[in-house]
Input
Amino acid sequence: MKSLSAYILVMLLGIPSAGTAAGKNFCGELYGTSFGPFDYLERFNLGKQLTVVEAHHFTSDVENLVKGESSSLGGDLHYTLRVWPNHHRALVSLARLSIRDKSTRFHGLKWPVECYFDRAIRFSATDAKVRTIYGGYLSHQGRNKEAVEQLEVAINLEPDNVTALYNLGLLYFKLKDYDKANDFANRAYALDFPLPGLKNKLIKAGKWRELSAYSKQESQD
Output
């Protein structure tokens, strides 16, 4: 499973919202370092800064959870996400590491896994892909209501976020809210989402309805 954000991760530690002392955030302050933080949404305008980090800390081996590059695997993910808090691919890799190893703490990570999502959201609250990745991670942890909240935010920010639409449909199916599951399924399939799993689940449950509001125009058939 290479990507949590690409299509669907069919698919514990909570993050304190207040600081522990003197107003400091439990998950660390975002600013105050000599390099970064940089917004991953602006990566195409910050190619040099991105290359510095990805060449030395977020290599293919790190992304695929094989081994660290400049330090431990956790250390390289921490550095990448400290400099680029909303680095989508690094967040995906971190979520996959947590799921694979069934842990939220790793050597080299300064904070628990969910802190890195907290930091990404604080840094770029309008980044829909961060919310989508986080929603997938929460769903995998069985925290369905929290996952729904994140995915709904993602869709409000980016209505054509097909991954969020599909994942949210799956979550509503789990919650037996079949009307909403159908709604989000139809929206995802109207945007050419390729996986038939959600539709098949609804058909098997006798709940599938093709909604004309989201059907493709006949000229596109």
